[in-house]
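Homework help board

Subject: predicted structure for assignment chain

Our instructor gave us this sequence and asked us to write out the predicted structure in token form, then describe one feature. I got the tokens but I'm not sure how to describe them. Can anyone check?
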Amino acid sequence: MSNVIFNNMVLRDGHQSLTATRMRTEQMIPALDDLDSLGFGALETWGGATIDSGLRFLGEFPFDRLDALKKGAPKTDHMMLLRGQNIVQYSNFPDDVVEAFVKCSVKHGMDIFRIFDALNDMRNIETAVKAVKASGKHAQGTICYTSSPVHTIEKFIQTGVEIEELGCDSICIKDMAGLIPPYIAYEIIKGLKAKVKIPINIHTHETAGLGAPTYYASIEAGVDMIDTSIVPFANGTGQPDTVRMLSLLENHPRKPDYDLEKLKNLRTHFEKVYKELADFTNFSNERVDTDALTYQVPGGMLSNFRNQLKEQKMEDRFDEVFREIPHVRKCLGWIPLVTPTSQIVGVQAMLNVKFGRWKNFSPQATDIALGYYGTTPAPVDAEVRKIAAEKSGKEPIDCRPADLQESRMDKLRSELKEKGFPDDDENCVIHAMFPQELEKYYKKKKEAEEAPKNISESDGEPKRFALTIDGQRHDVLVEELN
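My token output:
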């Protein structure tokens, strides 16, 4: 059997899991040469929350990051996480927007698209898969792992068969909360290997301490690829560290060979970056926390939700709210907890505790109950669906949600023209998902371009002004800003 392949997640999931997705492109660039030369199966560089966070908090236009990373690491395949019909947002988009997003991503260098749907409704990944295949790139269909009375090993294997039938090039078992025990991973992979011909990737987190042993069991079962990261953007709520996994596989016949000296250099670099991002680090994300096994929510959500409860003056009701999560999941058809469903279920659990069960129904939970996110793994509780329909005035649906959406690309282009913004496909798809953030980006960019740029002599110590243009920091000397 061939060596297992490591994909590296440090440039996307690593910092998303451990520092709120705040790593800047300029902090990534010095690491690209070593990352590109190590021989990883893929570098995950984009998707997930990085597009939102880069635009919202870092002043970076998303496709500029992809251009820079592809230029700095041209030899290794680049991989992104795509939320199916949600693209990288929380709601469904029309097919033409999904198709345009995929084409733009390919144009800017994306090679592998890991495509998932939060409900494991394969109808919600069909358009993205077809668009990726039409572009000649690699479509990886995803099984979102969770545990519930309706999520059986046989069901996960059947989902993998459906993914192969869709025409995907590989399968990913995505364990977003770090819940999958080693032997269950072993059985799922063994079962898939007996049923499908395409390669299998497993992705997990070290949140509850199961990640590394689960990877070992998966390798024993014949998995083709695993996802690792690099300390300090590894372990805890991140993926197991690359060096750690290599040590666990010492003398194993499937151990790959990655340059330990280069990995050491990368650790040194990322430790410096981690210190620079100290405002976004959190001890609770760095440690093993078995609460994830109890509440079955992704580790990042555990820490973030504590802060949200504090803002609502409900910090003393943390346990009560999280005990409500399984009830909400059950009523909403035992949905997996991954973006966006983890956030939706968490908010609804908070509302149930604060106001009484289903007295206050969030719009997103309403849409899940009525089928507007897709088919849930189990039927939605009949009484809860009735309440959702009565409160919202909306009728339940059972069709593919995107079938109710009208094409939007022409409208998006017109809206951008009216604002005086660039109206290419890249801006259209970002405008579709993050209209307010895109407008703020161009407003700040215009202000920066119009800022006085004359430099005059100064008697004293010259003043420095940090100017950010296209996400890049430029330090210029100025005497006075008018």
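Reply (TA_rk): Your tokens look well-formed. For the description, you could write something like this. The CA atoms of residues 114 and 333 lie 24 Å apart. That's the kind of observation they're looking for.
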